[in-house]
Amino acid sequence: MQEKLMTSTPAELVTPALLRGWRLSTEASGKKDRGTVMVIGGARRTPGAVMLTGLAGLRVGAGRLTMAVADSAAIAVAVAIPESGVVGLPEEDGGIDGGAAGPLLEADLSTAAAVVIGPGLDDAGQAAALLQSVVPLLGDKTQVVLDAFALGVLPGLPEVYDALAGRLVLTPNGAEILRLLEDADADEDSLDIPKASAEVARKYQAVVTPHNVISAPDGRSWEVPAGNSGLGTSGSGDVLAGAVGGFLARGATPEQAACWGTYLHAVSGDRLSASRGPLSFLARELLEAMPPVIAELN
């Protein structure tokens, strides 16, 4: 393994005291005051990813949820999550027709405080077309989380990340970090996550949160001293993206939302590891484990 390089700016630990200093208001006269989070993704075979993301957004306090999924899955998703509005999107071979999605979503995008794009997408070309059709319709203050396939295509879409500079959060894994850095020769096993995360943050002018490290474009960084290998399970990243999106919808800055969401995800995973077993808990159980952690921080 190659020797890892140290980052130039020491990371600040994300602790309960830090988060309490970043506490978001719990005063709201109605659901509109808590913000709307919109999740776009969910091919025919993978609508569950959008459901996990959307429910995480509600669990952390967003007031309203809208989910956009492949049309053939829309009714089932709407029945499964009655707290949500659901939009059916045109399909191509079971995946979302990205280029046709934007016009159908324009009204919903205009009211969303935060938009999460990517969970459950299954085609790179359609993911790129989706970003190109959706991002121009976003309001100037709408904050965005990109996950999964929506991350992988970002290097080829400078018009997208330039338009989202300063209001974008990326939630990559190690392989996706290498894709974002366009470094085909690098080895994921020897990747210096803090250094690479900082490079991605600068390149895309985004807050980046991989593997419990949070990096901001201005060089600031944070580290969550929690988490375990059990979080490497199907759907776990969708929950993380949804938690970040929910905090954004409530009015958090990108770095606040990333720190809150990453901490909540990691600590909830630790508690489930202790009660269920280190590799036995499911991503959906994170949704039930998160509210007690939030309650302790308020």
From TrEMBL:
Q: Which residues bind (6S)-NADPHX?
A: A49, G120, D238
A Gene Ontology annotation in the biological process aspect, one of them, is: metabolite repair
The protein's organism comes out as Arthrobacter yangruifuii
Is ATP-binding one of the keywords UniProt gives this record? yes
Q: Which residues bind AMP?
A: G237
Q: Which GO terms describe its molecular function?
A: ADP-dependent NAD(P)H-hydrate dehydratase activity; ATP binding; NAD(P)HX epimerase activity
The UniProt entry, under NCBIfam families, shows: yjeF_cterm (TIGR00196)
Keywords (alphabetical) are:
ATP-binding, Lyase, NAD, NADP, Nucleotide-binding
The protein's name is ADP-dependent (S)-NAD(P)H-hydrate dehydratase
Q: What does this protein do?
A: Catalyzes the dehydration of the S-form of NAD(P)HX at the expense of ADP, which is converted to AMP. Together with NAD(P)HX epimerase, which catalyzes the epimerization of the S- and R-forms, the enzyme allows the repair of both epimers of NAD(P)HX, a damaged form of NAD(P)H that is a result of enzymatic or heat-dependent hydration.
Kindly indicate whether the keyword Iron-sulfur belongs to this entry.
no
Reactions catalysed, as given in the entry: (6S)-NADHX + ADP = AMP + phosphate + NADH + H(+); (6S)-NADPHX + ADP = AMP + phosphate + NADPH + H(+)
User: Can you give the residue ranges of the YjeF C-terminal domain?
Assistant: 14-297
| Cofactors that this protein relies on | Mg(2+)
What is the uppermost EC class here? lyase
Enzyme Commission code(s) on record:
4.2.1.136
Q: Which protein family is it in?
A: Belongs to the NnrD/CARKD family.
Describe its partners and assembly state.
Answer: Homotetramer.
